[in-house]
């Protein structure tokens, strides 16, 4: 009876995954939303039946992906299938939210790296170079159009855009890390509500204001900042590692700064709209983002929260 129920549940989860997969593949606008739900069938099934049953579902999903999609669509099944199994199993054994976030992020990042390596090595396609080439073609077309209309071209802006493209290519490892963490967070956000309704006890996220990063990160940040001052070959692995580590740590300082702003507003009984407005404006106004990062650095280095508490 138990096996029959598990098979029935697995068949339902497989059907649900294929529906979400086909919607993602063939319905562009809606697919951009269903993309983030692809891991949910694996999370739910693994949280109820364990990782071994999750792997059986994953194997079936791979076969059906090749039948109804294509071999080129397999990376998405590998990414969301394996990531979903790990997250679901961690829910099953009652791991904390942050443990699930860390483990899920590592799995997503590793799979993304493998997919990227396969694409660049075997298919001889470099996504970054392809994107750069497409943007450069667009720039050249815009330049030709403006010249034909007799309009002047701002060479300084074009040069800045070219530098931005080179900068983006160097940040590919950071992008992969960010995507891995983001996918895990979204998966947790969506799946926790579903699992709660199914009767599974799911730990709630602590308030954003309570997030405090390890104080040791400030030293890593300072070391990375000093290392960035040394002249290194831009194509060297050392430069790439330091460059990406520095920018990842910068993002963490921003996170710490935003968390402190929410914390400060909460303890001063200020309107909730104030920190939310600062959060939105920070990503629209670069100078404000710099100030938020500075607040994060000071909070980590001098423990500003204890001073807010003492003055309360």
Explain the layout of strands and helices:
Layout: H1 2-26, H2 28-34, H3 40-49, H4 51-68, H5 74-92, H6 97-121, H7 127-148, H8 155-170, H9 172-197, H10 217-227, H11 237-267, H12 273-282, H13 286-302, H14 304-311
Helix pairs in contact: 1-2, 1-3, 1-4, 3-4, 3-5, 3-9, 4-5, 5-6, 6-9, 7-8, 9-11, 10-11, 11-12, 11-13, 11-14
Provide structural commentary:
With 312 residues, the protein is mainly alpha-helical. It has helices at residues 2-26, 28-34, 40-49, 51-68, 74-92, 97-121, 127-148, 155-170, 172-197, 217-227, 237-267, 273-282, 286-302, 304-311. It has 2 domains: 2-197, Arp2/3 complex 21 kDa subunit ARPC3; 209-311, no CATH class. The model has no long low-confidence stretch (mean pLDDT 86).
Short key terms for the protein model shown above:
single chain; Arp2/3 complex 21 kDa subunit ARPC3; 2 domains; globular
